[in-house]
Design a protein that fits this description.
By secondary structure, the chain is an all-alpha fold. The chain has one domain. 79% of the residues lie in helices and 0% in strands. Helix 7 crosses helix 8.
């Protein structure tokens, strides 16, 4: 990769780090950037997951005082579930042929965007509340999905944690730590894959660390509704673009 491309990835990763810390969906920015850099969908997903991990850990550490478990479900149990699910998802991804994964990606992004939109704007009218058991099962599913495809795990966890009764900002801090936990386990599997582009991952990782710190500072200083609308818009545009790429 040229120096210009690496500098662009650095800037993109900073924005993604901020986005991950605030509402999730940072890989919706890095993933298409890596596709444009010439990677296939599977390599872009694996490289993006590895690259964003340092920023997730940094933002999670910055917000560690605000994490919380849901009613009847401790944070420690949520972390254990996330760790195990991340490993399962990562192994499943490496077993998936790259050509098949390329066609699955648009549906995965569409699913993540739809769940986040429903959790953000639809649940208040429905008055739904998750039980501790349901929250545990959903977190396990999110963790497996997160290990398989990093895009949208923050969105999914925000929706699930708020439905489990956590205030939005507490859910945001908690999902930052849980995202780091599940991706640590996924990265431990991905690190041995030949699909990793380490130079690109390094550039993205440096930008994501800086962005994660900025996002942690901004978390309690931004308009929540505007942020959620922006996340849904990004996910919708990315879904359309990926469908054209894979099925057009």
């Amino acid at each position: 990769m040229s120096h210009g491309v690496l500098l662009l990835l650095l800037a993109v990763a900073f924005v993604a780090g901020v986005q991950n810390a605030l509402a999730g969906g940072g890989s919706f920015i890095t993933f298409p950037a890596l596709l444009l850099a010439g990677m296939n969908a599977q390599a872009a997903n694996i490289t993006s997951t590895i690259a964003l991990l340092p920023g997730q850990l940094a933002s999670g550490f910055a917000n560690r005082r605000h994490v919380s478990g849901a009613e009847g479900l401790s944070f420690r149990m949520l972390a254990v579930i996330s760790l195990a699910g991340g490993v399962v998802g990562a192994v499943l991804l490496l077993a998936t042929p790259p050509s098949l994964f390329e066609r699955l990606v648009p549906f995965l992004v569409l699913f993540a965007t739809g769940v986040f939109a429903w959790g953000s704007f639809g649940r208040k009218q429905q008055g739904m509340r998750l039980t501790a058991r349901a929250a545990a099962v959903i977190q396990a599913g999110i963790a497996i999905y997160g290990g398989y495809f990093g895009g949208g795990i923050g969105m999914l966890m925000l929706a699930a944690l708020t439905l489990a009764g956590l205030p939005v900002h507490t859910a945001g801090a908690t999902k930052n730590v849980l995202a780091g936990v599940m991706n640590v386990s996924a990265v431990a599997v991905f690190a041995f894959s030949p699909q990793v582009h380490w130079v690109a991952a390094l550039a993205l990782g440096l930008g994501a660390i800086a962005g994660g710190q900025a996002g942690a500072w901004l978390m309690f200083r931004v308009n929540e509704r505007h942020l959620r609308i922006g996340v849904v818009a990004i996910g919708s545009l990315l879904t359309i673009g990926l469908f054209f790429r894979a099925w057009g």
